[in-house]
Amino acid sequence: MILVFSLLITGCASIENKVTDWAVGAERSMADLQAKQITVAEFSIPYLEGGQGPTVFLIHGFQSNKDIWIRFARQLTKQYHVIAIDLPAHGDSNILMDKSYSIAEQSKRVVAIMDKLKLTQPVHVMGHSMGGAIALHVAVTAPQHVRSLALLSAAGVQSPVPSELSRRNQRGENPLIVRNDQDYKNMLAFSMSDAPYIPSPLISSFTRIAIAREPIATKIYQEISNPGSWLNAEEALPKIKVPALVIWGDQDKVLDVSCTTVFQRLLPQAQVVIFKDVGHAPQLERTKETAQAYATFLATVKP
User: Fold this and answer.
1) What's the pLDDT at 211?
2) pLDDT number for residue 3
3) How far apart are the first and last CA of the chain?
4) DSSP 194
5) Which of these, 182, 59, 181, lies nearest to 127 by C-alpha position?
6) Which residues of the chain, if any, have pLDDT below 70?
7) What tens digit of pLDDT does each residue of 144-178 get?
8) DSSP letters for 72-134
């Protein structure tokens, strides 16, 4: 029935957008998450919050937003207080083209968001992809905010084996930037090895959003691709003393799975989980398994 309904309404942008809003709202409700918003400096920061218990703070990746965590968070909200933010210039946050969105600048804003949310005690921080690099930066520069660190297909180190994304960047290609409908389909196929089903009205709505975001996406990608904006991993990561978890997919084309060997060496306390036949988004491709691995890790973290 959902598929038939999706086919009937495909092509009507206003209806597709309403269906998307309804579907996302329903998913949030099932996960016990409520949409909220704060203001930090010049930025509006929408976020999702729900559940009770120790706080888990989720940071999404490049070209993503808070809703990438909904199904993952659904597995956690019965035992944990979950917060998933939109980073500045992502999701429903406002876009300021004259600002920097480097890893260092975004990490400062994340700390400011934590302060605005009155997270006075250290929290469990998980970052995905670019969000992983931001989480690393926060753990090094503001360790008082971090109780444990989870890195999900995380940027922040140089992989021993160049990723397919790196090789394509060298050829002047970027499969993560969306300029048309086909680009969005290609981006999904490139990012995930086993993508979940997404109804066509949602695909159409997400595609329009991604195309509209092309100028800011290009700017952000250029900034985060500058190695000078990253921490020196060899020097910085050994400073992180909190419990750590590293999760990866063995088919990741964005950030090669060989990154895990670097994290194992520089974060010797880290537990490492590698999923077979999974790409760059384990929280979407293997939601329950990723949440279970994270919950098992959190159970080992001392209060």
Assistant:
1) 97
2) 37
3) 47
4) S
5) 59
6) 1-12
7) 999 999 999 999 999 999 999 999 999 999 999 99
8) HHHTTTTTSEEEEEPPTTSTTS---TTS---HHHHHHHHHHHHHHTT--S-EEEEEETHHHHH
**Residue 156 neighbours by CB under 8 Å, 6+ apart:** 103, 132, 133, 136, 137, 230, 231, 233
Joined together, the tokens standing for residue 34 give 């409520």
Q: Which residues are known to be catalytic?
A: 60, 129
Which residue, 146, 58, 70, 133, is CA-closest to 103?
A: 133
Query: Within the chain, what is the greatest distance between any pair of CA atoms?
Result: 56
The upper half-sphere exposure of residue 40, i.e. CA atoms within 13 Å in the direction of its Cβ, equals 24
Query: Which DSSP helix (H) or strand (E) runs through 184?
Result: helix 181-191
Burial of 231 (0-12, 13-18, 19+ CB in 10 A): buried
pLDDT score of 227: 76
Kindly state the tokens that stand for 175. 């499969």
Closest CA to 176 of 285, 41, 280, 87: 280
Burial class (CB in 10 A: 0-12, 13-18, 19+), 157: buried
Residue 160 CA to residue 258 CA, distance in Å, equals 6
pTM value? 0.94
